[in-house]
Write a structure and sequence with these properties.
CATH superfamily of the largest domain: Rhomboid-like
Number of helices: 14
Strand content: under 5%
Order of helices and strands: HHEHHHEHEEHHHHHHHH
CATH architecture of the largest domain: Up-down Bundle
Largest sheet: 2 strands, antiparallel
Length: about 290
């Protein structure tokens, strides 16, 4: 038996053992699972890692461990034992941190599972070997479908699934793989751009301009305003495109869209808002009162 096989089987065995022990020991689950309130207020940062060794039930455990079994060997062969261990731990941490950020206003949000770490392993494998077949689907296509479904799950909070941990783990796994082997960008430039750019763009919009998701006209208004600010014609009076910042007028935004964005910011919690978000909240409140 090769060293990488021993390491992989050991990780699977430890995860199965700890999950089973938690099922058999009342109270142990709450002590080690991912819990926003305990991490944020009580500084119990160990939960960012220990939650990856707990699972809800046998089906949850089986799915994650089978995925780790099928993809883990490739990751260890490609990155070496130390590199694969770093990727697994980094993906677990990345998934927990993104989940913490997305749910920071929900003190009682709790979760567990190795899904973030496993997502990192799966996506690093796809990035290094996009031709791999996953459930009879080409790896590069499977990855795009997975990312879109995960982002949709974050937006809609669909199902009892930690979509944030999945996305954070996938991003962390790909970044670590790229740091370990930068030539991946040269070999697969388009796929690397899509796989990293799509979720990063989604997270920026989700954080700073979530109204774009359900008010497309606001997106187009913002896009035109940005274009007009960047454009500096020699004779604005002859321009076919209205210069928004010169006229002082913006395309109207519905009261429902303004209220929806305010609600998004309030859900985060005023004490957790950045300075930019606070200024935006004040601006929206003024617009709503007018």
């Amino acid at each position: 038996m090769h060293t990488y096989e021993i390491a992989l089987y050991s990780l699977i065995a430890v995860t199965c053992f700890t999950s089973y022990q938690v099922w058999q020991t009342p109270g142990l689950n709450d002590k080690y699972l991912f819990w926003v309130g305990k991490i944020r207020d009580s500084k119990e940062y160990y939960r960012l890692f220990t939650s990856g060794f707990l699972h809800a039930d046998w089906s949850h455990l089986l799915f994650n461990m089978l995925s780790l079994y099928f993809f883990g060997g490739f990751t260890i062969n490609a990155l070496g034992l130390f590199g694969a261990a770093l990727l697994y731990a980094g993906s677990l941490l990345g998934g927990s941190l993104l989940s913490l950020f997305l749910n920071r206003a929900d003190w009682n949000y709790r979760a567990y599972g190795a899904s973030g770490a496993v997502s990192g392993v799966v996506f690093s494998t796809i990035l290094m070997a996009p031709g791999i077949m996953i459930f009879f689907i080409p790896g590069f296509l499977y990855g795009i479908l997975y990312l879109v479904a995960t982002m949709w799950g974050i937006r809609t909070r669909w199902g009892n699934i930690g979509h944030g941990a999945h996305l954070g783990g996938a991003l962390a796994g790909m970044l670590i793989a790229l740091i370990w082997d930068p030539m991946i960008v040269v070999r697969h430039p388009i796929m690397t751009t899509i796989y990293l750019g799509l979720p990063i763009l989604f997270l920026l919009v989700q954080t700073y301009r979530p109204v774009w998701f359900f008010q497309p006209e606001v997106f187009w208004n913002d896009l035109v305003a940005l274009f007009n600010r960047l454009r500096t014609p020699s004779d604005p009076s002859k321009s076919n495109i209205r210069i928004v910042h010169q006229s002082g007028h913006r395309a109207p935004v519905s009261q429902e869209a303004i209220q929806a964005e305010i609600d998004q910011l309030l859900d985060i919690g005023h004490q957790n808002l950045t300075e930019i978000q606070r200024r935006r909240l004040a601006e929206l409140s003024r617009n709503l009162d007018e």
